[in-house]
């Protein structure tokens, strides 16, 4: 690491002596360089983190020191016995007041000795960082030779720079995060939102974004017009060698992404073929095709999840490296076949903002019926319950299926004559039917005479043009009333 003032003061051959209290300034901050100047105002020629070596005391120490502090100077060294003996008290007091460390350089110690110590440490640190960058680049290049080249490269980059790394896919969804779990949902949304305009532009571009997990640097992957995604790298405190390593990874990741896209496309077509063989009842054929490339099919009982939404492409990419069961794209739907207690569908829905349904447990021979169940359950999904279970739908009974827009539209049309004649009539009929059509019971609940209730029911029969004495007519009316409440 670069030299610090603590290390500089500890060199016995230099004979330096700290004049300000040890609590003044940061004695362990890295020093960028050591520079000597006796100009009344040397700040235009200085940079932050440098040590200033002087022999000429300033005419007015207060504004002189204030300018140095504003410039970010790390410390001041005063050479004695050149212009005067000892360090002037006003300079010591001003440095102490403004938090600027001040040390005394004896006459026997040339300024070049101080500068050389700092320069040697800066050079050693630069060499160490360059050596690290070379080793890191070599490790990342070797990672690119692994089967999952993209995942291996991003994981190795994260390990080498000790920062989180994420990949936003071409679909705008955060597809990969290294290390796993490094980003919460809010940080993932921030990355996706920041990457979206870069992807939409279709041009190679870069950007930055602040998240709850810290700042991230963004860089598009792929050629202009064929962007494959955006690489997001935690950028807090990254020095030049680390940034060079990241730059090299951009090229490797782009290449790996192109290669993985081609391989993934072939695997996706194979998955679809296996899925359609399963639906056709050819389980043995499907298993023989899947085994060498995709692995064994899940053992029954299984549950089928059918998901849909804009993020299914990103979800399929995520499943390639995270799924244990079988999955496939089928048109605009993503189908998962897994263990009966598999929670992957819920995870995907949350991560990629998908909706869908989950079937009851079944064997491989019952997959067509399971797909129908999952699609039926998917119609009942909500923002709070994005993956509805068919078991829950079935437990709610047949009447629960009436709560759909189509059923409500038909019911409102059927009940319109009642509402137009008397807005309270549907409620009266609902109470009567809930009482199993028993007039005495319903009349007591409504607070009216049973003959009045009979007259109201007769009005409804006239308005609807139906005889409500039959079970079928009453069931149809009850279904309409349930669909509108």
Describe the structure.
The two termini are 72 Å apart. It contains 17 helices and 15 strands. α2 links the parallel β3 (50-54) and β4. The strands form three sheets. Strands 1-5-4-3-2 form a five-stranded mixed β-sheet. The chain has a five-stranded antiparallel β-sheet with strand order 7-6-10-9-8. Helices cover 50% and strands 17% of the residues. α14 crosses α16 (450-464).
Describe the protein's topology.
Elements: H1 5-9, E1 17-18, E2 33-36, E3 50-54, H2 61-71, E4 75-79, H3 89-98, E5 102-105, H4 111-143, H5 149-161, E6 165-169, E7 174-178, H6 185-201, E8 206-211, E9 214-223, E10 226-234, H7 240-279, H8 283-293, E11 302-308, H9 312-322, E12 326-330, E13 333-339, H10 344-352, E14 355-358, H11 367-378, E15 387-389, H12 390-395, H13 405-421, H14 425-434, H15 439-446, H16 450-464, H17 471-483
Parallel strand pairs: 2-3, 3-4, 4-5, 14-15
Antiparallel strand pairs: 1-5, 6-7, 6-10, 8-9, 9-10, 11-13, 11-14, 12-13
Helix pairs in contact: 2-3, 4-5, 4-7, 5-7, 7-8, 13-17, 14-15, 14-16, 14-17, 15-16
Number of strands: 15
Shape: elongated
Overall pLDDT, averaged? 85
Point out poorly predicted stretches: none
Q: Biggest sheet, in brief?
A: 5 strands, mixed
Summarize the entry for a quick read.
By secondary structure, the protein is of the alpha/beta class.
Characteristic terms for this protein:
single chain, 485 residues, alpha/beta, 5-stranded mixed sheet, 5-stranded antiparallel sheet, 17 helices, 50% helix, elongated
């Amino acid at each position: 690491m670069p030299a610090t003032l603590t290390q500089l003061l500890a060199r016995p051959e230099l004979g330096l002596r700290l004049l300000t209290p040890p609590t003044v300034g940061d004695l362990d901050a890295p020093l960028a360089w050591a520079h000597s100047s006796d100009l009344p105002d040397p700040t235009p020629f200085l940079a932050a983190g440098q040590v200033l070596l002087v022999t000429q005391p300033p005419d007015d120490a207060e504004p002189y020191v204030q300018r140095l502090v504003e410039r970010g100077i790390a410390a001041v060294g005063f050479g004695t016995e050149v212009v005067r003996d000892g360090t002037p008290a006003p300079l010591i007091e001003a440095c102490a007041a403004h938090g600027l460390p001040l040390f005394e350089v004896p006459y026997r110690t040339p300024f070049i000795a101080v500068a050389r110590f700092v320069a040697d440490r800066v050079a050693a640190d630069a060499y160490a960082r360059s050596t690290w960058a070379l080793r890191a680049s070599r490790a990342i290049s070797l990672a690119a030779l692994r089967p999952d080249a993209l995942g291996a490269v991003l994981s190795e980059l994260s390990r080498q720079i000790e920062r989180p790394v994420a990949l936003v896919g071409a679909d705008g969804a955060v597809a990969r995060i290294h290390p796993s779990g490094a980003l919460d949902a809010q940080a993932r949304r921030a990355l996706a939102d920041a990457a979206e305009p870069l992807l939409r532009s279709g041009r190679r571009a870069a950007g930055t974004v602040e998240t709850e997990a810290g700042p991230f640097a963004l860089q598009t992957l792929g050629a202009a017009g064929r962007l494959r995604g955006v690489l997001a790298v935690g950028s807090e405190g990254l020095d030049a060698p680390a940034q060079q390593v990241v730059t090299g990874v951009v090229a490797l990741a782009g290449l790996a992404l192109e290669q993985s896209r081609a391989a993934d496309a072939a695997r996706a077509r194979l998955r679809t073929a296996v899925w359609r063989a399963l639906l056709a009842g050819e389980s043995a054929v499907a298993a023989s095709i899947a085994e060498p490339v995709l692995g064994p099919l899940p053992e029954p009982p299984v549950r089928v999840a059918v998901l849909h939404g804009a993020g299914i492409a990103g979800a399929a990419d995520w499943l390639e490296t995270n799924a244990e069961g079988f999955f496939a794209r089928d048109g605009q739907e993503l189908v998962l076949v897994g263990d009966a207690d598999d929670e992957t569908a819920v995870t995907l829905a949350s991560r990629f903002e998908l909706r869908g349904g989950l079937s009851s447990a079944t064997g491989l021979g019952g997959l067509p019926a399971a797909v129908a169940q999952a699609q039926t359950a998917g119609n009942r999904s909500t923002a709070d319950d994005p993956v509805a279970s068919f078991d829950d739908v079935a437990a709610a009974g047949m009447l629960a299926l009436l709560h759909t827009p189509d059923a409500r539209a038909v019911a409102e049309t059927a009940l319109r004559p009642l509402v137009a004649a008397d807005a309270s009539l549907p409620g009266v009929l609902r109470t009567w039917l809930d009482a199993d059509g028993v007039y005495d019971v319903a009349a007591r609940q409504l607070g009216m005479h049973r003959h009045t209730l009979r007259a109201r029911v007769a009005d409804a029969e006239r308005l609807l043009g139906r005889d409500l004495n039959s079970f079928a007519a009453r069931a149809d009316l009850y279904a309409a009333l349930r669909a509108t409440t």
